[in-house]
Amino acid sequence: MSRDPRFDPLFEPIRIGPKVARNRFFQVPHCTGMGRWWPTASAVMRGVKAEGGWAVVSTEQCDIHPTGNVMRQIRLWDEQDIPALARTAELIQAHGSLAAIELVHNGYKMANLESREIPMAPSARPVYGILPVAARAMDRSDIKAVRRWHRQAALNARKAGFDIVYVYAGHDLALPMHFLARRHNQRTDEYGGSLANRARLLRELLEDTHDAVGDRCAVALRLAVDELLGPDGITSEGEGREIVAMVAEMPDLWDVNVSAGENDSLTARFGDEGFQEPYTSFVKSLTSKPVVGVGRYTSPDRMLALVKKGVLDFIGAARPSIADPFLPRKIEEGRIEDIRECIGCNICVAGNNLSSPMRCTQNPTMSEEWRRDWHPERVPPRGRDEKVLVVGAGPAGLEAARTLGQRGYRVMLAEAGRDLGGRVARECRLPGLAAWRRVTDWRLGQLAKLANVELFRESRMTAEDVLQAECDVAAIATGARWRADGVGRRHSFAIDGLGLMPVLTPDDIMDGALPPGPVLVYDDDHYYMGGVVAEALRRAGLAITLVTPESMASAFTQFTLEQARIQGRLIELGVAVLTATDLVALHKGEAEIACVYTSRTRRIEAGSVVMVTTQTPEDSLYMALMEKPDALAAAGIRRVARIGDALAPGLIAAAVWSGHRFGREIDRQESDAVGFRRENVELAAL
Ligand code: ADP
Ligand code: SF4
């Protein structure tokens, strides 16, 4: 197939300084959680993006000196760091794409725990967060030193083979941004005061970088043109615009966004595709240089409109390129319906924030390209001519059936209900989670193309049914149900007084139950469900108190960068949020709660409780089959496996990954081997 000529503008080459990008798809810098600890896995992942058609593929931020030491990202402190980065550039260029590197000095943002160097800032201040470390004010010799380090890093980046070298002033993470922002820069010398003075370091870094490597490399500037902080920060109507005007022609490429990370990587719960346009669309009018911008773009029509209307020259993507590394190729090949759209959940971001190779809800192969040899588009052909029964069409079952089908196995997918998608089909009806439906939609679209996969709705399977299904292998993907007794992290035993008032679970709420108010939502799960259920019930007009033993609502969402917005929204909606509080007993018309520090109890009025604590695997079918080894052997079933939430309830991303792994490894010999490649630290000479 070839592309619809309508999309031709997205495939026009464009010049960036001394380089030419082959099309308008630009993977902007994004973290991966792999960084310097997983250089090969990271390089291969970037190479796969290039293979998938992104004309420019960037690294994450790369720190240039131990005084701005970001432990989990890549680094380019001196020549010793070149080989790992050279491999990234090489794998990107092998597919005809340009390799970009984002140089950074993190200023006051990092405590330099590894290097123990004192952090630096335009003006003295504590470092970001809660660590008991202060950054010192930079003097003129420090500024000269930063310029020297940046220049040397640019030269080393060129030596490593990069085509584009970034000067980074985004996300409130980078020193030039700290100089620009009035709230960080209270200097009285030529680097402080007026905007022209505050922009001096940025100008100097742009000049230095051009001077050092501009003959062979393009120089990009990443600038946050709005920090969404109002007058305390840079705004697209105020200083953001002035800065762009001031240095408009200095970079070869503008990469513009909003700051900080929680605004730039806004989740689908809080914003739609294109959410950055109101802030960034002015940039093109002030510069003749190409402009890249982001906004979780997954719709080719939207992308086309942006390029045609001259809002952007490049469609920038971090998350959409993680969810589908082959997005550009699919447009180019006229396979738009094959695009696996990002759902805007930020599980990828959480992986990085937890210093682990990032995972993606939509793309189970993310970070596994080299570690497990999982390509996002290609699978090995089937190892045996077998028929596989998959029971349950949630994310795990759908992904297992899809992967097996793609490999050429004969697959029967049996689902008890009419609706397909399992928990996703239910959860996407909760406030703000509509985009999650894409997990199901994409898989159903792919399954429809596979003649070797048969789908059976309204087919609740018993052990007898499985034995009679004439399959060689059965995968049990029957999901999980929320517990109603309060057992979870905090409570190992059922909460007292369960019979004294209606007790519901998120499953009941998703089934449409409206509990009698006032409702106490007890969240001992700490991801999205407690907050979302509280929001849904509040929107239905009920009085809600959210009780959680954690010190904030939906505590895990700190890692997905949503926590502040979630708690803010609950408060705005009128949900009473009681943190550091446990639910200890139920009484008639009242719930007994306790401070987690003092154990002091008190009672609050409650007409019902919704328990959001933990889920129990729905594994009764699996257990029933395990009790019949002889019948399984007689039926010719060589293996029964539990996958997804039926094995252990968790993230949707984990269920998808589990289904994918089952599909990939169905014909693999059982083994005690580690199962994935590691990058071993080379022992240094003593
Ligand atoms: P996961 O996240 O692991 O994919 P889900 O809970 O999303 O799990 O999906 C499990 C699916 O399995 C649900 O759609 C449910 O209706 C279905 N299911 C559960 N038990 C059976 C069964 N015995 N036969 C067929 N389908 C089942
Ligand atoms: Fe998108 Fe979620 Fe995948 Fe991140 S993890 S790329 S937000 S689908």
Shape: globular
The average pLDDT is 97
Helix run count: 23
The set of bound ligands, ions and cofactors reads: adenosine-5'-diphosphate, iron/sulfur cluster
How far the N terminus sits from the C terminus, by CA atoms, comes to: 58 Å
Beta content comes to 15-25%
- Compute the number of strand runs: 29
Class per helix and strand makeup: alpha/beta
For the CA atoms, what is the radius of gyration? 27 Å
The major β-sheet equals: 8 strands, parallel, barrel
**Poorly predicted runs of 5 or more residues:** none
* Percent of residues in helices: 25-40%
- The order of strands across the largest sheet is 3-4-6-10-11-12-13-14
